[in-house]
Description:
This protein has 357 residues and is mainly alpha-helical. It has helices at 2-46, 65-71, 76-110, 118-130, 133-143, 149-156, 171-175, 195-198, 204-231, 234-242, 247-258, 260-274, 279-284, 296-306, 310-335. Helix 14 runs antiparallel to helix 15. The longest helix is centred in the N-terminal third of the chain and has 45 residues, at 2-46. The chain is flat and about 60 Å long. The termini are far apart. Mean pLDDT is 86; it is low at 345-357.
Amino acid sequence: MSVKTDRGRWRRRARANATGWAFISPCVVILGLFLLIPILMAAWVSLSDWQGRGSPLASGFVGFEHYQELLSGQGLASKDFGLSIRNNAYYFLLVVPSQTVLSLTLAALVNRRALRGKGLFKTAFYFPSVTSTVAITTLWTFLFSASGAVNAVLAKLSLDGPNWFNDPRGIFHLLFGVSPTPAGAGSAGFLGIGLWDWLAGPSVAMCAFILMAVFTTSGTFMLLFLAALQSIGQETEEAALVDGASAWRRMWHVTLPLLRPTLFTVITLGTIGSWQVFDQIYVSGHGSPAKTTLTPAFLSYQSAFVDQQWGRGAATSFVLFAVIVVFTLLQRLVTGNADPTEERPRRRFGRSRRRSS
């Protein structure tokens, strides 16, 4: 009797699985045709000498030659790749923390009970995020031009504004007054870039893009933080108040631990987005001035579609993918477990109370 029952359960389960696969099979087929197969084809192109004509499968196999050109530190291809990594690394290091802190601050302000017109503030903060990147970049080039509104405001403050999108100087060199390159500092280093250039910081032009990224992305992440803040029960904050916690300690020891899943999502999305900068660079100047706004995503496009080096362009894309994965895993290690329901030792916020004898 038990054998027949087990067979019946197995058949029902098999039918349920077959029904589920039947429903998702169109999606699986579409993803396979338009996602998995192109990725595998691009991987083959990065290992071949395909020149953009005919079938990639008919091209010759060259192994990791294109990857060696990028990572060897020798030649123009490796130097361009090193410049793009340096530019994007500073972009990532400045954009992700800034947009995370700003979006969390905006969400905390909008979440206040005493604030009126919350819908207006949400719309105003979120509007730049839904505006076309091309339109925002075009507007930004006018605002940050030599005679633009930003320099006009700086002039009112008796400050001389730079020629933002035409200034290749590193911001750290400018701040410390060491702009001239000393003798011997231009020797090739990691990825063909000398230590002096690695420490130059983002160029003035890249700083304008950093400000634009923070301005356009903070609204989206603000909504994520706002939804997470509104899901935290009022009794949690009241319990912290009863325990004697100040506003700062409530934010640091109560709110932020409960926001860890959202914080992980925001930082992950920000990390991925910051390493995929393309539209702004394509619209503004294709990496100018002096390649100080060149990014790996744009370099991949330029190598493949402009220079017709399809293998090198595909290799750049896969190296960029590896960089994104590494940074995401490092961020996961830093943030730790994002599950707020995990049991943790309780911490008292007020002063320790003596037990009555």
